[in-house]
Each structure stands twice: as structure tokens, then as C-alpha cells.
Amino acid sequence: MSELIKIATVSGRPIPLRGNDIDTDQIIPARFMKAVTFDGLGQYAFFDVRHDAEGRPKGHIMDDPRFQAKGPRVALVNKNFGCGSSREHAPQALMRWGVKALVGESFADIFFGNCVTMGIPCVTAAEADVAALFRAAEEDPTHNLEIDLTAMRATYRGAMHPITMPAGPRNQLLEGTWDATSILLAAHEQIEATAERLPYVTNFQRK
């Protein structure tokens, strides 16, 4: 039986991604969306922002040695992050690069929803708090930024900042109901019992 995965806290090194209205085409260019699965998309996250036309690195912060710590990452973003087309590949690319949560001023609705269905919390904070987190992370990125969905706060280098998230998605993460597949697997006995009572299922015969 599959157990529900409850997400109350996420901790990881910060990766500051400055800029308003960063759209999904910047996060993952369309030409990299031809794969059958999402495997390997992490290497293409922000590819055109990180490389020139010949594929040479341009010195993007994601390639800065100061921000190359292994393990989970928490992205810091500004306003309307994830706007543009509703491609699920955008949060998939970020997740496969290492991003497990995002803190920002605001998120595009569809991007936010795609993140929740993948178990990636997107929390918002006041502009001043986001600015403070950016400054602290850029000054010293060697600490973990912790997102606490129970206490609703983000903590970095001892400084705590209040965060917000709509009650519905927050409860989904806290209760583990964000993962539809796990919910179905956990309820397989009830599903089988229901199927046995349905005449169009029990009387169905394959030819």
C-alpha cells in the first residue's frame, strides 16, 4: 500500500532567481520539451538565460560556484514567477535541477497549481521580506533556507519571515493529499470493492 507523503517543512540551500514576470519559456525553452518523460530536464532549466547562442555559459547564478551546493534547493523569486504558457515541464525542470520549494512575491496561477501537484510548495512573502532573503542569500549562500508550512514562516541565518499560502493547497501538502496517485493506491481496497458493485465493471468481459 502506498503511503501519503506529507510535506510540512522543506529545507535547502537558496538559489536567488531575480526578476519579475519570469515566464515558463525562460524556465524551460520549448525545444527541450520533446522528450517522452521529464527525466533529464534539469540540465535545461533556464538554458537560454544561462548560455549564449553558441551554448557558452554566460555566468548565470545557477552556474555560480557559490551556489553549487549539492542537495535540495529553495528558489527565491520575485513577482509573477512562472507566467506564460501552462507547461508542466517548467516546474519539472526546476525540480530536477534540485528545487524543492519556492519563496516569492507572487506566482502565476497555473504554475502554482502544477507545483502543488508535484509536492513543491510555492509560498509568498511581503516584498520587503523577499528582498531581505535575497540579500542574505547573496551575501552568504552557505546556510539552509527552511520553509515551515505549519508555522508559516521562512527562516534563513536566524531571521524569520512570515509566509502565506492558500489554505487549500497548504492543507493538501500537510495532509499528503497533493499526490493523486498515492491517494488512489492507498485506497485500492475501497476502489476494488466499489468496482465489484458496479454491473458495468463486473459484467464486462474482454474478447
Question: What do these coordinates show?
Answer:
It is built from nine helices and seven strands. It is α/β, with parallel strands linked by helices and 207 residues long. The chain has one domain: Aconitase, domain 4. The protein has a seven-stranded mixed β-sheet. The radius of gyration is 20 Å and the shape is globular. The mean pLDDT is 91.
Number of domains: 1
CATH superfamily: Aconitase, domain 4
DSSP strand count: 7
Q: SS-based structural class?
A: alpha/beta
Q: Strand order across the biggest sheet?
A: 4-3-2-1-5-6-7
Tell me the CATH topology.
Aconitase, domain 4
Give me the strand/helix succession.
Answer: EHHEHEHEHEEEHHHH
- The proportion of strand residues reads 15-25%
What's the tally of helices? 9
The CATH architecture is: Alpha-Beta Barrel
Radius of gyration: 20 Å
| Main sheet characteristics | 7 strands, mixed
In short:
By secondary structure, this protein is α/β, with parallel strands linked by helices. The protein is built from nine helices and seven strands.
Give the arrangement of secondary structure elements.
Blueprint: E1 9-16, H1 24-27, H2 47-50, E2 73-76, H3 89-97, E3 99-104, H4 109-117, E4 122-124, H5 127-139, E5 145-148, E6 153-156, E7 159-162, H6 167-175, H7 180-186, H8 188-196, H9 199-202
Parallel strand pairs: 1-2, 2-3, 3-4
Antiparallel strand pairs: 1-5, 5-6, 6-7
Q: Notable features of this structure?
A:
33% helix, 9 helices, globular, 7 strands, 207 residues, Aconitase, domain 4, alpha/beta, single chain, 7-stranded mixed sheet
